[in-house]
Every structure is written in structure tokens, then in C-alpha cells.
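Any chance you could type out some protein's one-letter sequence along with its C-alpha cells so I can compare the two?
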Amino acid sequence: MPAADTNFNYRETGGAYYLSEQQRARIKQLSRSWIWRLELPTWSLIGVIYTGWFTSVIYWQQLGTVIGSVLLILLSAWYMSLQHELIHGHPTRWRRVNQLLGTLPLAVWYPYGLYRDSHIQHHKDEDLTHPEKDPECYYYTAEQWQYFPRLFKGIVRVSNTFVGRLTLGPALDIIDTIRSTIRAFIAGNRPAIIMWLIHFGLLALLFHWMAGYGISAIFYILLISYPALSLTKIRSFFEHRAAENSAARSTLNEAAWPWRLLFLNLNYHLVHHDLPTLPWYGLRQIYLENRVQYQQRSEQFVVSGYTQWFEAFAFTALEIEIHPFYGSENKVLSEQARHAVIDCAERRTESV
């Protein structure tokens, strides 16, 4: 693909950021193919995940605890990747239909609606890694960090190791979710309460049905859904970093095919943030066609695979504690003002 066109109006109203007019035309061409128009890869994925999950439960006794657990862990983690795809408008253009396809709580922990709303907020790239605005942020403001107990600071540091993220990371997320649920009920947040009641009702029905095949609710929560959530933490480990350039905040992880399939190519995370409605089966193709440009755009925030993260940070913590730019809301405003002054000066220089 040709280099980025500097005269091209990159960021569109819908949030898509194209490297060039040629890239936009290329994606439009791909979207006209019958495979993309019919969303066959995503429909196939839905069929495989649901069939595999229910079959694994029905044949639990025949599969045995070990094989059955491994299958359900993988399928539950895969289901969470599917839910992410549904949030971004696939496989149908109807939001309600996509929601129905992802509402069943196979992964237990989060209602689809809660995940959808927080993730859409996360896609405001200008707020990526902002401790007070990005719901998927691991950073804190200096004011927040100052008042944390020493024990909690230690837990955060441990959770910033690769092993710690897999073991403690899910627990921290679950605790935050429980706290937000309690706040919603106390505040009388009717939409949130309805969402949670539907989630709990479906979960109760699911646990009751699984119990008939020998899988208890406690076993499923502790030994299947928690490990499944841990698997997703592999993908999100150092997925974003603090950087003044918003494009340099999202990683490009050239992972092996099993990880790419499990995470539906979200390892090419900058491409996903630039083109959030691009289907999962197009992310790798678009990345490879523009590999050099994307790596430059990310300011070389590129890794060769998840093994690289494990080797570097298995027991060594990432420096993700106090955000280096967002000490407070006033700091954010001053940064915005500084960039506005720079942009204005550059325009004056160009006009001269």
C-alpha cells in the first residue's frame, strides 16, 4: 500500500482513521466481497463457540474433568472475544440482534450491556490511558495514588507483572464490578438494575442446567470462568501505554496464529482503534498491507508475541502506576491548551 497521504482528512466522524485515501478505497473494496457482506466468518464463529460450549457441557461426563474444563475455559475466553466483535457492529447492522447473540452469560462476570457501554467509552482515543476517563485504564492519578494504602499499592505492583496480571488481575476487575453493581442498586439506576437482574436470572438458569450434567456453580466460577478471564488478560497485558501521541498508546503484537484466533486479531490493537468497525477477519490483512506505516504510527510500540511480554515481565512489574501526563483534570486541560498553541503556531508558520 502507498504511504499515508498527508493531504487526506484522516479521522472521520464515525471514528475511523485511514492511513490514506487508497486504504479507504481498499477497505471499501473488501467490504463488497460476498464473504464480508454476509459476515460468514463471524456467523461461523458464533456457531462453533455455542456448539462447542453446549456440547462440552452435555458430554462433560464422557470428556472427563480435565479435558472438559480445558475446552470450556478456551470456549468461554473465545466467547468474550466474540462479545467484543458484537459490540462493534458484527455480524448484523442491528444492535439489538447483536446484543441477543452475546447476552448469554457463558463467561459469568459481566453483563453484555455493561461491557458494551464501558468499551465504547474506552474507544475515545483522545482519552486512552486517562485514569479518570478510560474505563480500561491501569494508570492512576498522583492524587489517587497518594491516598492508596501501602498494601493496595503492593497489590497493584504485583498485578503489573505478567504472572500477577493473570492471577490477581481478574480478581481486581471482579471487585470493581461488584462495587459498581452495589452503587447502581443504591443509586436506584433503573437501566443498570434491569441489566443486572436479567444477567443474574440467565446465570441462575445456566447454573441450574449445568448442574444436571455434573458441573456445580462453584466449580464453574472458580475453575472455568476465572481462568477464562485470566486468558483474556494475556491479550490486554501492556495493550496500552502512556504516550502524548494517542496513536502511540496502542500496541501492535505480532502474535502466533492460535493467539490471533483466540483473540480475534485484537493483538493488532492500533489497527482496531484506528478502524473499530473493521471485522476481525480483516484486521490482520489490513495490518500486513500497511505494516511499516502502522509501526511508524505506533512509534514502534511493537512486540513479536506474548512470549516476549512473559520473558520480560513474568515477575518484573510494568511501570504502570502514576500516569506521567494526567496528574489531574487541570493537567489535562493545560496539555490540551499547550497543543492548541503549538498547532496554531505551526499553521501560522505554514501560511508564511
Residues 111 and 197 are 10 Å apart (CA to CA). The chain is about 65% helix and 0% strand. The radius of gyration is 21 Å.
